[in-house]
Design a protein that fits this description.
Radius of gyration: 20 Å
Order of helices and strands: HHH
Helix content: 55-70%
Distance between the termini: 63 Å
Number of strands: 0
Largest sheet: none
Strand content: under 5%
């Protein structure tokens, strides 16, 4: 009986250079922090939510890290806000 061997799984992290990995790790933290704060506010029914300050955080991030596009978060937010305002 012939044994069928599966090809080894590729580690996606190996596709990136050390510099690319370092940059993405540094960017993931601030985005996670912003989204974590949004989720926390949502859990409290957005009590004391300052939308302008929230988006200022994203704008600041975009200026510091222009190669990471976070504009889709605002588009989703605006889309959902519009969708729910029509209910």
């Amino acid at each position: 009986m012939q044994t069928i061997r599966k090809p080894p799984r590729e580690n996606p992290a190996e596709r990136f250079t050390d510099e690319q990995r370092r940059r993405y790790i540094n960017y993931a933290g601030p985005v996670a922090y912003l989204l974590h704060n949004l989720a926390l506010l949502g859990a409290n029914d957005f009590k004391d939510f300052d939308e302008k300050a929230f988006w200022n955080g994203f704008d600041d991030f975009s200026q510091r890290c222009p190669e990471i596009d976070v504009s889709h978060f605002r588009r989703v937010f605006e889309s959902e806000l519009l969708r729910h305002s029509n209910d």
